Amino acid sequence: MKYQSITPAIFISRPNRFIAKVNLNGDELSVHVKNTGRCKELLIPGCKVFLEKASNPERKTPYDLVAVEKNGRIINIDSQAPNAVVKEWLLKNNKYDLVKPEFKFGDSRIDFYMEKDGEKYLMEVKGCTLFVDGIGYFPDAPTERGAKHLRELAASVAKGYNAAVAFVIQGEGIHEVRPNTATDPEFAKAFDEAIAAGVRVLFYTCKISEDGIEIAGCEFLQA
Predict the structure, then answer these.
(1) Torsion of CA 13, 73, 4, 35, to 10 degrees
(2) Which of 23-27, 28-32, 54-58, 113-117 has the lowest mean pLDDT?
(3) How far apart (Å, rounded) are the C-alpha atoms in residues 36 and 18?
(4) In terms of C-beta density within 10 A (0-12 exposed, 13-18 middle, 19 or more buried), how is residue 208 classed?
(5) How far is CA 19 from the centre of its chain?
(6) Is 161 exposed, middle or buried (0-12, 13-18, 19+ CB in 10 A)?
(7) 81-220: CATH topology
(8) DSSP character at residue 148
(9) C-beta separation of 168 from 217 below 8 A
(10) CA distance 73 to 96
(11) How confident is the model over 181-220, as pLDDT tens digits?
(12) pLDDT, tens digit (0-9, with 9 covering 90-100), for 125-176
């Protein structure tokens, strides 16, 4: 996926999870952060960030903060990007006969439902932006919803679905994502339970630029 109009700026602060203060051409400006996670390892005062111009000129925040530069590499932090690039990938590779986003299952909406040769598939997508020593970790903040989705996927296996959780790695050079046990032990527990139930774990590696993100390949957690 490509952004329409990207402008670099310097990050100043983040008063709340929705808003960041940035320096844009010498002026302090409030912008919308397209990620409600903590991102505290990324959004450091003085770092370079990338802004997308909002399509609505009347909006109070004229830009969306979608990416940040760290150690010379760009990390996409747009929480809407993972689903968008996975949809592109699924349709481009023509692996499935049917790809349907936002599928109602149990008490949740699972990101993707697919069909192929009479088989039914469910896939939940998670974006990963927290990297430590070459490993990705999810989540970077507690998420009851994340654990719930994993348990829905585990339940779907018993009903005949092929289920998978897919981590979209929103930075280059990372090939594995692990549950962030210290931050969210409940998610880590649900992750282990899902694997035991037969849920597959996928890692989508990505090519990142200041104005876009695309999936470069797909790897699997080895049992």
Answers:
(1) -40
(2) 54-58
(3) 6
(4) buried
(5) 19
(6) buried
(7) Trna Endonuclease; Chain: A, domain 1 (3.40.1350)
(8) H
(9) no
(10) 34
(11) 999 999 999 999 999 999 999 999 999 999 999 999 999 9
(12) 999 999 999 999 999 999 999 999 999 999 999 999 999 999 999 999 999 9
User: Around Cβ 114, how many Cβ atoms within 10 Å?
Assistant: 20
**How many Å from the N-terminal Cα to the C-terminal Cα in the chain?**
32
Q: How many whole angstroms separate alpha carbon 8 and alpha carbon 83?
A: 24
Find, among 75, 74, 50, 76, the residue nearest to 64 by Cα.
50
Among residues of the chain, what percentage have pLDDT more than 70? 99
* Exposed/middle/buried for residue 58 (C-beta within 10 Å: 0-12, 13-18, 19+): exposed
Looking at the chain, which residues constitute the CATH 2.40.50.580 domain(s)? 6-75
CATH class of 6-75: mainly beta
Q: Is 198 helix (H, G, I), strand (E, B) or coil?
A: coil
For residue 220, list its beta bridge partners. Answer: 202
pLDDT tens for 105-114 read: 988 899 999 9
pTM passes above 0.85: yes
What's the sign of the alpha-carbon dihedral 64, 178, 103, 217? positive
In the chain, which residues fall in CATH 3.40.1350.60? 81-220
CA distance 153 to 104: 12
